[in-house]
Known about the structure:
Elements: E1 2-8, E2 13-19, E3 22-30, E4 36-42, E5 50-58, E6 64-71, E7 77-80, E8 86-87, E9 94-100, E10 104-111, E11 128-134, E12 145-155, E13 160-169, E14 180-182, E15 187-188, E16 194-199, E17 208-214, E18 225-227, E19 233-237, E20 244-254, E21 259-269, E22 275-280, E23 285-286, E24 290-297, E25 307-314, E26 325-328, E27 333-338, E28 346-356, E29 365-371, E30 379-383, E31 386-390, E32 394-403, E33 409-417, E34 422-430, E35 435-443, E36 450-459, E37 463-472, H1 475-503, H2 508-533, H3 537-543, H4 547-580, H5 586-598, H6 603-611, H7 614-626, H8 632-657
Parallel strand pairs: 8-13, 15-21, 23-29, 31-37
Antiparallel strand pairs: 1-4, 2-3, 2-5, 5-6, 7-9, 9-11, 10-12, 12-13, 14-16, 16-19, 17-18, 17-20, 20-21, 22-24, 24-27, 25-26, 25-28, 28-29, 30-32, 32-35, 33-34, 33-36, 36-37
Helix pairs in contact: 1-2, 1-4, 2-3, 2-4, 4-6, 5-8, 6-8
Amino acid sequence: MTLNFTTNSSEDYSITLAYSGSSSNDLATVTANGSYTDYSFDTDDYVTSGEMTIEVSRDQGNGSDSVELTVDNEEPQIESNNLQDRVNSEFGPVQFEMSDQSEVTDLDVEIDNGDALDQNFDCGDESCSGELEVNFPENKLSHDSSYDLNIVAEDEYGNELSYNEEFVYDNRFEGDSDPEVSPGPQVFDGRGPERFTVSLDQKDESEVRIKCSPDSWFDGFSDFEDIDDSEDFTCEHQPVGFDISYDMEIVLEDEAGNSETVEIGEYFFDQTSPEVGNLSAVVGVFNSDFQLSYDAYDSKDVQGLDVDTIHYQIDEMQYGDDRGKEISHQEAEGEFRVGTEGLEAGKHTVYVWVRDKSGKISVREEFSFDFRPDAEPSASLSVDDSASVTAGDSKIIYANVTNTGDLFIGEMELNIDSQVLNDSRTVQDLRPGNSTELMFSIDTEDTDLGKHSLTFSTESPDTSREMDFVVEANKNQEDRITSKYSEYYKKYEALEKNVSDLEKGLSDSRKEKLESNTSGFFSSMESAEKAKSNGNLYRVKSHLQNVENRFQAASNTYEEVKKQHETAQRNQAVGLFLLLFVGLGGGGLAYVAFFSEEYYLDFEALQEEFEVLEEPVQKVQETAGQYELSAEPLENAVEKFSELVAEEEEELEEAESYAFQGFT
């Protein structure tokens, strides 16, 4: 060991070196040269690693100095405290404890594939002790491959450490991911311990641990246990004194920490018996099968522990008898149909009990009822007598249905039938004495103007009611109807006056014809006038339907009868004229022909009027005989005139067959 030092002395003297409590034979002579001079001690003694003190002192007189230092002759020390034979990517960081007498100046950590690893190591200036955390690189190691972890550390004095540790990189679970558990998920009565066997068909390369774990507030009933290929694992549930359920999970974990959680299903442990109660029906009198309501539950604390089946029996129920009609349970609060086939009339009792999925039976409850197989339901229906609405608007109307009998009406249809609405409503659950009000909305259009009959009816039981429903005219319709009425009322007044004046001189046949063909128009207008005075414009509109046709028929008839009447009056004058000119013979007939062409003659009327002349003609003939005068000219005139009348009448009939005859 060599120790260098510097001193300034005014005289010559010797200095002695000592270290670690030992004296050295080495001496150094200091020369009094009046300045600082470098000196050194050299010794062959071996100095061990550790803390030591070096001291120099004068052999003569006073004066000494010392220094404390650390001697480091050893390599750094390292020890792993958690690296396993098999690790995965989630295992890190790997922890090491490292120590040295001096500072570690160089540290390299790598695996044998050449990848450098993250390192985290903090060391002091003179000595070092701490933890080295090593994280495996992601996506650089191959599953199920072996690697060497190499650590090289060097301190400030060149002491070097080489560390090596082998491991297997195992990054996934490769055991049985679908273990068999027996028995499977179900409901147990909860009275005693239940054991579940877990069997694995496939083994992971590393050691595997397994445990049963319920996914609930209830503590797990097994810890991890190592298994091998030949062993089955057993979980055990102990009774807890109350109803409980949980989802069982099997947790498998290999040596590297890779795990698989398998959900087996929900297990129920039912220690309480089910209950049924609150039996009720809408009424106590029935004529057929009926619905009976109930409340039933198996466990108020555990959802899923439900009643499995409901049982009932009518009359003669033995408490120990578990027979009866079975009904699949649907809900905690529900109803089921009680069959009454073959049941005699009178009072009866139905007994009800329930069974849960573990086989436990409830206490039985009972419900009494009166059975009347011949009874019929009855109901009444009431509506307003009438209602009205303006065309284009909507109207709400109501119908009230009342159960007037002793039987419950489960369902019945109320129908409404009319030109403005066809609809139906369903009446349900109508108890005896109760009523229900049903609403209907009627949307009207302009075309609905008028009076309608709404028919309300029900079936089983049968009822029926009628309502008058009037759709009144709106403003636009009112204006149109009033305008049309005014137009034809003026025509009506004028025609009525003309007809009245004409009737005074008519024959009975023409008067009858005139009245027959004008009465339709007059009656319509009189009815329209009355409806308008009452404010019923929809009736006015109805009476004015086809009024133009009726008016034309009346007008045409009036003109026709008027013309016939005027012609008849001329014909009478012509007949008298003929009597005066019977002596003219052919000249008279020529005049008649000229007259018929020049002036229109109604030959039908003329023939009628001419019959009046038969008696005077006969008298002329008789007078001519008495005075031995010739009556031949007159007879010839009558004959010719009759032929002429017949011919003209045929032509007139042919012409009239194509003529407009008017409307009736």
